[in-house]
Amino acid sequence: MLASKELRCARQPVRDRTVIAPALPVATLAANSPFNTVAILPMKTPVSRRRFVSAIATATAAITVPGCRTAQKSDAKRLIIGTGEHRYEVLHDWAQLPDRYSWQTTHNVAVDRDQNLYVIHEGRENLKDHPSIFVFDRKGRFIRAFGNQFQGGGHGLEVRTEGKEQFLWVTGYQQLKNFAKLTLKGEVVWEKRAPMESGIYAKDEDTKPAKRWGRDAFMPTNFAFLPDGGFFLADGYGAHRVHRYDRNGRWVSLFGAPGTGPGQFNLPHGIWLDDRPGRTPSVVVADRANKRLQWFTLEGRHLKTLDGFILPANLDSHKDVLLVPDLSARITLLDKDDKVITHLGEDPEWRAQVLKDGMKLRREEKGEGWVPGRFLHPHDACFDPAGNIFVAEWVNTGRITKLRKVS
After folding, report:
1. Residue 152 and residue 177: Cα distance in Å, rounded?
2. Which of the 8 DSSP states describes residue 150?
3. CB atoms within 10 A of CB 183
4. Alpha helices for 112-167 (secondary structure H)
5. Closest Cα partner for 372 from 134, 90, 137?
6. Looking at domain 94-405, what is its CATH homologous superfamily?
7. What is the pLDDT along the chain (407 residues), one digit of tens a residue?
8. For the residues of 53-73, what is the DSSP string, one character each?
9. End-to-end distance of the chain based on CA atoms, in angstroms?
10. Residue 80 near residue 87, CB atoms below 8 Å
């Protein structure tokens, strides 16, 4: 899902006609920080300095594509963020949505083996005939939409391979309070509600769902899949616990409790099986309101805690890199030793703008005040097999960005 001063030159060598953005009255970049390096790469035709500055000054203008709406605004240049071996071209306007649908509050993203992207948004409860899930091909072209039943509460989304088939796993919160397994075309395989056998939920929480919050409410957020076919389910907005299910979808156990100590949670929003090379598989939880990640054994025993985050929302991995979208305007990459590689989009002054006036920017219907190459509220992000990153942001009009890996 920059600042109020000037965009200053990143003073670095220029190769292959790479142009580093000059001073502009739109935002500020910390020129000497590897977290904030932004490069603008020209297209095939030469561009004069005057035309270059003019193009950047109008970079916030929205493009018009006949018959489609784009998730974001366009830039006439290729915008590069990141550092070293982790540099990405920013494509805010990548996904093309037909006019008959509208972008709503985007929540999660997932990629299947054909590199199609699945996007779920919370949707509006009163728009019951509008789908909550969109599917795009690898070039951002719309394929299909489904999932009307998740309107008003669509949240978590993952693609899981089971033998030769793939399935879509979805969580619903708010008034839905459910989780489900679907085919990639949207047919329901099964749907479940609160595991009452856990003994932690209010009476009728599994049979009479209502938009009621609390530690005895069931508000699931995300999944992590186990090697034996079972899975973990994070009840992030409800009981602040993690449930374990077997391969047949039967509840087995839970771990965690509300709190701030080791092994306790304050909004366990994201969860992931950390099976990066050289590691014993463990489960890592994005403990959002505690501003940290926590690792556990597959039996739920606490292993370690990593602080230094703001609002970590979810997780994904590719090779030895762990991806952590942070709801507070940045995306963190961790190396094999869980050391920070970079914070994509990090800029404290821009963050202040994002949080200003009750997070007014996230409610801008036309994205006014949004800055190319900067994020507002990354709610989820995932890798594709090539190491590209897709980002879903918690903004009213929805925002899906592709970060195309260039190094």
Report:
1. 11
2. G
3. 13
4. none
5. 90
6. TolB, C-terminal domain (2.120.10.30)
7. 433 333 333 333 333 333 333 333 333 333 334 344 455 444 444 444 334 444 444 444 333 333 444 444 443 478 999 999 999 999 997 999 999 999 899 999 999 999 999 999 998 888 989 999 999 999 999 999 999 999 999 999 999 999 999 999 999 999 999 999 999 999 999 999 999 999 999 999 999 999 999 999 999 999 999 999 999 999 999 999 999 999 999 999 999 999 999 999 999 999 999 999 999 999 999 999 999 999 999 999 999 999 999 999 999 999 999 999 999 999 999 999 999 999 999 999 999 999 999 999 999 998 999 999 999 999 999 999 999 999 999 999 999 999 999 99
8. HHHHHTTTSPP-BTTEEESS-
9. 22
10. yes
- As a whole number of angstroms, the distance between CA 164 and CA 135 comes to 20
Give CA 313 to chain center in angstroms: 7
- The CA distance from 205 to 187, in Å, is 25
Q: Where are the domains of the chain?
A: 94-405
Can you read off the two tokens belonging to residue 362? 């996230």
Give percent helix, percent strand, percent coil of the chain, each to the nearest 5.
Answer: 10, 40, 55
CA distances from 391 to 13, 192, 325, 329, 388 (A): 29, 28, 8, 11, 10
- Maximum alpha-carbon separation in the chain: 69
Pairing of strands 86-91, 400-405: antiparallel
* Amino acid identity for residue 252 in this structure: V
Question: In 3D, which of 154, 181, 149, 145 has the Cα closest to residue 165?
Answer: 181
With beta carbons less than 8 A apart as the criterion, state whether 177 and 207 touch. no
Say which residues have a Cβ less than 8 Å from residue 342's Cβ, sequence separation at least 6. 34, 35, 82, 83, 84, 86, 332, 333
Q: Which of 328, 287, 281 is nearest to 306 (CA)?
A: 287
